[in-house]
Fold these 4 entries.
Entry 1:
Amino acid sequence: MIIKSVIDGVVARTAHPLGCKEAVRQQIEYAESSQQIVDGPMRVLIIGGSSGFGLASRIALTFGGSKADTISVSFEKGPSEKGVGTAGYYNNHYFKKFAEQAGRTAINIQGDAFSPETKAQVVEAIETYFEGEVDLIVYSLASGIRHDSGNVWRSVIKPIGEPVSGSTLVLENDQWQDSTLTPASAEEVDATVKVMGGEDWEAWIDALINSESIGSGCKTIAFSYIGPCATHPIYLEGTLGAAKADLHQTSHSLNLKLANFDGGAYATVCKALVTKASAYIPGFSPYIAALFKVMKEQGTHEGCIEQMQRLFTTKLYNVDHVPVDNERLIRIDNFELDPETQKEVTALLAQLNESNFMQLADYEGFKREFLNLNGFGFDNVDYTKKVDIDNYISKSL
Ligand code: NAI
């Protein structure tokens, strides 16, 4: 079949296997040619390793100097009569191929990371492939829903207290769409914390401690976002910010637990980037398009792989101690929050409207990165060629 890009609002409905291969290949190329991770972890578990920061960390750790073997958990759909499947499915498939060609072990576990069954499956895989221990756990889930013991929680992206007006760049039709978000109820805040806060991260670390799967010096990281004042009403001061505050708190209790293994736990604050999750946040896309414009002009723009390679080579490894801020957070959002950068972004954002956002901001770059995430928009992939999708059925594990 010939696979075309189909976007529904800001959600991709199709993915191109060969474009996903190209996206993984390009990230590997970056990791191999960058400053290398020294004395990095050899046995890594990534929870949410099929796209975004999780995939980039997997690539950096395997190809960026550490030569890590990896187990990744993700929740992706393969091809079926219902559709071609998700980009993460093909990313898993091709990451495994490239890693195995390089002589590394790469295990893909498809399952619900929140469930005890998946945790037990991972413990078993650690026994089988890692001689029973891990050296690093990357927690990189972005989810809208959590099922647990018969309960269901849905995260919402809403402000807390006051309504917030913002605009979204609708990728389906390249339109600017204004909307006003009503404040979250107390139940919605709690549900978002349940899905995106630290509870499940802690459940993973507890499960791994109980099964004696934590190696000496083992570290764990989870990703967070703070951002500038422009995004605070919808992010930091909203439901997602509440969940991230919980995640930061959890990092402290996990740090105490991992101190028993000479290890540590850190929430890592990243830069705003286009991922499946962030394109979805109302009011966020004009900021990202403005940020990309300014950071590209300044030569400080980074994508997921650049962020992860920098994290491992300057913060988590290659250093005597892990540098943190006064809230014990690792900060790799420093280029984004640079005052000069923010001054220009704020000025640009103030000018943006529905008729000029394509000219003034980097909408083209924003859209291209979104297309790339789903395996589209690569010059060296022939999208007119038929893809034999049956080749990919059940092949990613
Ligand atoms: P993403 O959507 O690219 O990746 C999410 C991963 O979670 C995928 O591997 C997906 O399969 C997996 N996943 C989701 N639900 C699952 C489930 N129930 N079971 C197993 N796997 C599941 O997301 P992205 O953007 O890389 O986000 C990762 C983390 O980074 C999140 O905590 C996010 O808040 C944080 N972050 C994102 C930023 C951004 O601008 N994208 C900025 C700063 C932090």
Entry 2:
Amino acid sequence: MRVVVIGTGYVGLVTGACLSDFGLFVTCVDIDAEKIALLKRGEIPIYEPGLKEIVEKNQKSKRLFFEVKGEKSISEANVVFLAVGTPSRDDGSAEMKYVFSAVETFSKNHKSYQVLVTKSTVPVGTGKKIEDYLSKYHSKDTFAVASNPEFLREGCAVSDFMNPDRIVIGCDDPKGLKVLLDLYEPMRKANAPIITTNRTSAELIKYASNAFLSVKISFINEMARLAEKCGADVSKIAEGMGMDKRIGKAFLLPGPGYGGSCFPKDTKALLSTANEYNCKLKVVEAAVEANEDQVNFVVEKILSNLSEKKEEAKVALLGLAFKGGTDDVRESPALKVARRLLKVGCEIKAYDPEASVNAIKEVENLVICNSAKECAEGCDVLVIATEWNEFKTLDLKEIKGVMKNAVIVDLRNLLDPFHAKEIGFKYDCIGKRI
Ligand code: UDX
């Protein structure tokens, strides 16, 4: 089985590397020549635990290759995955020009029977559009267009790929379905559940999953707001709800709102698709709105914890990535908070173990520090915005010693409130009165 993956971002690179680890011959193709040169040297352009090791291993075993144009590889492949970006347009719909440019490349190099698979999240109906385009140039019995969405979380994408909750294959062509089932046979043997369905359902499963998870987060964030008002504890609420198997424990952590490259973009793209079909998705709409409100809520919380002139306050911001374990700052709530505080006039010192370089490109007025202690020095408030493990074990005595005012606003409920208070901090967090 020969495979080509077009696009070497998070999704493409992880997919290509992991498939080669399952014994397939994989060529990853990207128009970015610099990126390909880097990958050929075994350097990984993104921070993703475990990825470097499997890329190196499979390059050495001559099962994983990187190419800029990849024409020959595409023409010889049994399966071609599309893993290029689909960024949000201003109206919330997905930008499809990269997908269609990759489809064009596929079309130009297509010879014998091949399966073209959308891996990155594409709007419902994209498979049909691709099929209609290819049918103009090629006989319909020489190709199949399938949907095989990814469910990888950044920071644990390799283990998510290797141990998936499910593999979804949507293909309306029985021959194409057979090829994809053969491709995933090693993973099925390793106990990965496979669900097969029609292409449109597969496309929608991806959006429905991300939208549902976004709803879960917005729901618990709203419960947190109510809990603070009425004197309940959101952590206990989440625990009590999560013990019900029908609800489940995951994705009930309150915080500054969801961010990242998927949830904000995919919820809006789903609303845009629903709009096209004249179908109102009130629950998803509310989740998006609640997520936007959550940033207002946490900014107000930080400001209300500042005793002196708010416009002159010095804020220590711990965490810039959209979540712990990644250098990704796309739609990061930490940066949204930073922008809002800068607008008020606050000075912001910031520290993140991995994401500072990316963050400073987005918000230039941040004063970047090399440690949590350096960040806290002379500040009026310490804000924890990203759930990095190293923030859980901060030396609070040392931090208090260097701050101007001993105030912590913990937007991820990471610290032990009683320990923080014992040390002498004024401590505030999400969804409980301390
Ligand atoms: C997500 C999906 O989980 C994945 O299946 C999909 O393929 C891509 O999008 P990712 O964006 O890497 O993955 O991050 P995820 O771990 O899901 O977190 C998304 C956001 O939700 C983060 O900002 C995170 O901090 C937030 N979150 C998550 C919460 O606020 N509370 C939670 O309980 C869980």
Entry 3:
Amino acid sequence: MIFHSDTSIVTIDRFIIEQEALFPEATGELSGILYDLAVAAKMISSKVRRAGLIDILGAAGSDNVQGEHQQKLDVIANAIITKAMDHGGRLCAMASEEEEGIIEIPPQFKCGKYVLLFDPLDGSSNIDVNVPVGTIFSVLRRVTPGEGQGRVEDMLQPGMKQVAAGYVIYGSSTMMVYTTGHGAHGFTLDPSIGEFLLSHPHIQTPTVGKYLSVNDSYERHWSEPVRALMRRYRGLDDRREAMNVRYVGSLVADFHRNLLGGGIFVYPANSKSPEGKLRLLYECNPLAFICEQAGGAATNGKGRLMDVVPSALHQRSPLFIGSKCDVDTATLMLKDDR
Ligand code: AHM
Ligand code: MG
């Protein structure tokens, strides 16, 4: 393990190289994927930073003052990631929350041994009101034989098979947090030099959280055990101190605050959305990997989220993620749910 002093300036590129050097068997392919993702994140960040100017420069679907056609930011982010990642020779397929089927590697490029799954701009409805949004990604090793295009089966692996995962938050600053299974590390973008600098090495989330993130406008659609759990988190059954409720409605923002400050993000199943809302492969699993690496936990209410074997690319899942003790409470109180 490499430790950096508080005053070291470490770019994400250097950190990735140093991490790779710890594993003699590493071929550098995974590192290449992470570099390319960091570049894509910088490009998306620069677009997000200009989002507030859209009224001046032209709304989505219209032409801007230069006569260029405006696209929605989630569509732009999707195209940026696809273009940044399709030619490196390290991936054999991609899948995006924005696209129905898998994204093939164009025939002129070499296929590699990994697949990438991503949500290019999560919470994008928040863009219009200048609230943080994020990108989430997950990398898996292909399981189908051969060296050509990857297949859906390569994507439908449980979260514990992820070899890397991370997210980028476009907030008051842009941060990228990733893991390759050796801790969760955060990097803050210095826009003046265009580099992600190591700012949060070896993130550890508190064991007991102080924040509760939940959209309780769905309360009337929750099961009784979920309602009882929420009463517990709020201290209403006198079994724990009341948590502070904080809900941005942008998963990456809510997750990131809770990861650093301690807390739980909850998006349960409800009678209107029996599987919950969030996507297992693009949202839940990558954040679960980060959270576990930071000493937290994630469940779908029945068991460890990363043990779930997916059956469809866009499968949804209930999500309870964050500080270990608070997730354990959910597991205990929901064990007889439905
Ligand atoms: P999206 O992928 O369509 O952007 O939806 C995901 C978002 C998450 O960022 C957020 O946690 C959740 O939807 C909020 O949903 P709700 O408005 O139902 O609380
Ligand atoms: Mg999303």
Entry 4:
Amino acid sequence: MILSPGATVGILGAGQLGRMLAMAALKIGLRCHVYAPETEAPAHDAAHARTIAPYEDRAALRRFVETCDLVTFEFENVPTECLEFLQTLKPVRPSPRALALTQDRLTEKTFLRGLGLETAPFADVADAGALMRAVREIGRPSILKTRRFGYDGKGQTMLREGSDLGAVHRALGAGPMILEGFVAFEREVSVIAARSLEGAVVAYDLCENEHERHILARTRVPAHVAPELLPRAREIAEKIIVGLDYVGVIGVEMFCARDAAGAERLIVNEIAPRVHNSGHWTIEGAETSQFEQHMRAIAGWPLGATTRRGLIEMRNLIGEEAEDWRDILAEPDMSLHLYGKLQARPGRKMGHVTRVLRP
Ligand code: AMP
């Protein structure tokens, strides 16, 4: 099913990703109906219509989907049952299957391995006993992560020599987990790619990401890696997006590490089944932003060019950093984005700023 201009896209989730998706949708003549449990949230301001209800509310979901031509999501922890229900009424893109697979770190890593891609060594940790066995197999340092609902470093703990395994397991909630070998990476990189309804794949240039306290602080493009890694990164993203039979924009997070011979290689860490923070620079820095690209892809429209317009630096404005908005506005080459969040709590993404150094 291909959308016509004027159609309405339903977006589940009302964060800044939804806000920027809705703004991009407007540019190309689409409207958005945002559905989320929160009353105050960034995407509500940009939406044509909004529903404030829990993801489990079948009556509200039904009313919502009746007003939409198709549904997408900006938040990866939407319950899959919600998307599966909506899919019985309207197309959902990307598919609930792609979301379900990436919501669980164990199925995600198993899928990546199945594609022949390198990941950190990992082991299933079903319970405390399995953790002892997994630590014997993977060794330390290693990282214990909950299988579900982890983001920005939440739901994970580093295991070192002497860590009390029972205490760490309990502190993470004693649910299903995965133990991952620690990757001594040199840099963290990501690829933002998109696949159209007909199966065309495009990718943006490789991004290099710096985190502070587990939150993305800065993205630079292009990444400073060996040139042979650039086509390799694209190849990895393409394998994943095709393997998922995906429609829309995807973010693939990877580590760049050196092997024993000193050569750089890419190790896949995580798939984000949505537009990605490390792709915010594409608004000013690429011919087509990742947000417009996502809308084009799910609408069944041709994809746009991903050509980069210069050297890029994107910085997230976290918590009180957004108070510098006046100074940022005074810099002629900085493009400021604020997400309209009323409270600047520590660790909260309040906005971002992009600088494009034109060649
Ligand atoms: P994640 O929630 O998997 O994206 O992890 C958040 C951050 O923790 C990553 O961006 C890395 O900085 C770090 N991290 C996660 N897994 C590993 C790993 N296996 N080895 C080293 N660092 C990791």
